[in-house]
TrEMBL record:
PROSITE patterns: HTH_RRF2_1 (PS01332), HTH_RRF2_2 (PS51197). GO terms for molecular function: DNA binding; DNA-binding transcription factor activity. The keyword Membrane does not apply. GO terms for cellular component: cytosol. It comes from Psychrobacter fozii. This is BadM/Rrf2 family transcriptional regulator. Pfam families: Rrf2. The keyword Nucleotide-binding does not apply.
Amino acid sequence: MRLTNYSDYALRSLIYLAVKPEPHTLANISDIANSYDISKSHLTKVIHQLGQLGYIESVRGKNGGIRLARAPKEINLGVLIKQIEPDFDLVECFAVPVSKDKGSQSKDLPVTFIEEKTDKPIGCVITPVCQLKSVFSEALRAFITVLERYTLADIINNEDELKDLLFR
């Protein structure tokens, strides 16, 4: 399982905001991007979504910026990842075909929906009988279950070391 850079940047941004020397003061996207040497434009999209999801609050204006909207112990890593990862299609057959007549099925993880255009099977030829899909599904659920056991507070318990690296 590999998370996208988007999820990585989201987690790093939350870590940065959680360990700021003065937690209630505002930070800005440039500070975060510079601290991690990552793209400001890509980070802007991440921060926007984190704001929409209620993880951070933003203040507009000349002296504006961003800060955590929740306490670190209230930010569950598994919940966050399920909200921001675009899909969990470990293999091609995880994409769910959608026909115009049947609608779509939902599950607790992000799903990529693909529209059926022909009678030809989508993806791998053995998909209808493949049992490997259930193994991958079980592994993915285990991955998410582990993430759900941790909060942002758990991963910033070395706060002083993080501050030394991020706020030189």
